[in-house]
Amino acid sequence: MTKNNEHKNLNVPALRFPEFSGEWKKCKVSDLLDFYSTNSLSWEQLEYDTNAMMNLHYGLIHVGLPTMVDLAKDKLPNIKEDNMPTNFELCKEGDVAFADASEDTNEVAKTIEFYNLAEKNVVCGLHTIHGRDNKHKTVVGFKGYTFSSTVFHNQIRRIAQGTKIYSISTKNFSECYIGLPSKPEQTKIATLLRLIDERVATQNKIIEKLESLIKGIYSSILWKDYRLVSLSEIFIERNERTTTNNQYQVLSSTAKGLYRQSDYFDKEVASANNVGYKVLRLGDIVLSPQNLWLGNINYNDAFKIGIVSPSYKVFSIREGYNPYYVSCFLKTPKALYEYANASEQGASVVRRNLDVNAFMAICFPMPNRIMQDRISERVRAINMKLDIEKQVFEKLNIEKQYLLRQLFI
């Protein structure tokens, strides 16, 4: 690809395949697309896995469907019996559908294109705008991406109406423009972005498989015939605090891990609390009682020393137990639910806000230290692989967003 920095005033994108030249044509969206009526079927009137006509609900545009919808792989709900609309327009390959409303201006007019209908009958439903290029100015696959581009959504943000809910209508498309290159160039752009989308989908499956593998490992050891050990035998609560040292990093514990919140903390706020921040050292385990059921238990293997909110509980691990094994094991919701409810304090720990005394009384099957180390070694390796794959996933999405900014006008 080549950059077109020397043609800033021409109707060409900033980034372009080198074999193409010449200006793009600017086209009003209302001149490109003809619009068709849609139905207002709710989720209660839809179901999956029948042979009835399929229906596109706007919620699936926001979450669940890729930009290029391929019904050989992607799923749409079917219309329940007795809810069939009387007037409708069947979708064709190359048709686009916009979500006409959202709480987020970035999601208003979010678009999908029907890339492959797989010979299925589909109609557009609630809060969607159904558009078709009857003049055949575009190739199948190009429109979904040009309507997902940054330059198009910048136009939508300016005209979206509302305060809490932002919306558009077909009338708004008379104020929006897109750039149209030749059909061979459209095909090249659409093919590149579709291949990136397919790679993103594959990467997401890799991540899901690794996460499933980790869950499977823990599920397989939950019911082993190991010695039952209470958390009070494993944990030693620590209450080391500071109100004066501003050299500690401020750390935050979430369900996704332990993160650095900032490089310093406000000494005046800490002193005003009159309790100070808790000190978290390497090898400690930190948890938030308020969000324990959400997996907010983390092992500190990344920060030599830091401070956390006084609302957190900080524990060191007694000799004979692998801290990484203990922390990972406790991050599985099944472990907490099953063993908390099996304990004598079960009635008091089923709340979202867990009583720490009840938490410490929970008993788990615990293998010997050699087995703990072996399991930890394998899970740590999988987690490292998972982190790498998530980074790849993030980079692919960054690449796609870059191209959506640079390849269109």
From TrEMBL:
GO molecular function: endonuclease activity
UniProt keyword list: DNA-binding, Endonuclease, Hydrolase, Nuclease, Restriction system
Family membership: Belongs to the type-I restriction system S methylase family.
Type I restriction modification DNA specificity domain mapped to chain residues: 117-211
Statement: the UniProt record of this protein carries the keyword Phosphoprotein: no
Cross-referenced InterPro entries: Restrct_endonuc_typeI_TRD, Restrct_endonuc_typeI_TRD_sf, Type-I_RS_S_subunit
Keyword Nuclease (UniProt): yes
Domain of life of the source: Bacteria
Coiled-coil annotated spans: none
Protein name, UniProt field: Restriction endonuclease subunit S
